[in-house]
């Protein structure tokens, strides 16, 4: 229980540090008066929303029994289980809510881009911590592949995609869409290691949701490309 909580805290602090490094002295944020205080306030509020969604979708996808007892549902450290897809859905819902606030408009696309890169470096840490809870070779291989994949993606996003955003070659929000595509693909491929039939794989609720996210984000990236071409 303590180790699970420790891993989550380490991932969160690494995420915060990466967001700070990416956002501090950013020209767009300075021009739009997006201070670190404002940004971190949004992060901490979004944390509670995303953790609730992660727990909720974990119940839908993997363990519906947690809904039968409110304490089991809420006491995540004692009864571990979070859905990464649910976490991302929670963040997306929170971002949509922020987009409706006309009084204090934020460059949400750019914020999501920085969050996506920061999330990519925290994911391998979480998966490496998860390796200690696994027993079978198949599970260890699956999680190890995910950890390596996300670390490689972090390097690619940091070295190749981020400079294009900072120089204006990428529209704000495009990196976060590319992240969703990569996340969906890695998750779908890693889920092949689960011992299920082909029919069972495509009937799995999480896989259906991942395919939907993949198609939606791919369509959005194509639409972004047409917008750039038209410009």
Give a brief rundown of this model:
The chain is mostly helical and 231 residues long. Helix content is 77%, strand content 0%.
Pick out its properties.
single chain; 231 residues; 10 helices; 77% helix
Fold and architecture overview:
The protein is mainly α and 231 residues long. It has one domain. The chain has ten helices and no strands. The mean pLDDT is 90.
Class derived from helix and strand content: mainly alpha
Helical segment count: 10
Helix content class:
over 70%
Biggest sheet: strands, sense, closure? none
For this structure, the quaternary state is single chain
Shape type: globular
Write the layout of secondary structure elements.
Blueprint: H1 2-23, H2 27-31, H3 36-61, H4 70-74, H5 84-99, H6 108-131, H7 137-166, H8 174-190, H9 198-203, H10 205-230
Helix pairs in contact: 1-6, 3-5, 6-7, 6-8, 7-8, 8-10
